[in-house]
Amino acid sequence: MGRLIIVSNRVPSPRERSQPAGGLAVGLKDALREGESLWFGWSGKQVQLHGGDPVPRLDRVDNVTYATIDLTPLQYEGFYQNFSNGILWPLFHYRVGLMNYSRTDWKTYLAVNAMFARTLLPLLKPDDTIWVHDYHLFPLGQALRDLGVKCRIGFFLHIPFPPWSLVRSLPGADLLLEDMQSYDLIGVQTPEDAENLNHSLQANGLAARGQAFPIGIDPDEFRAQAEKSMKGPEVERLEGSLRGAKLVLGVDRLDYSKGLPERFRGYEALLARYPEHRGKVTFLQVAPISRGSVEEYRQLRRQLDELTGRINGAYSEFDWTPIRYITRPLAREVLAGFYRRAEAALITPLRDGMNLVAKEYVAAQNPANPGVLILSHFAGAAPEMDEGILVNPYDPDEIADALHAALTMGLAERRTRWQALEQEVSSTTAISWAADFLRALDAAPVAGRS
Ligand code: GDG
Question: What is the DSSP string of 192-242?
Answer without folding.
Answer: HHHHHHHHHHHHTT----EEE------HHHHHHHHHHHTTSHHHHHHHHHH
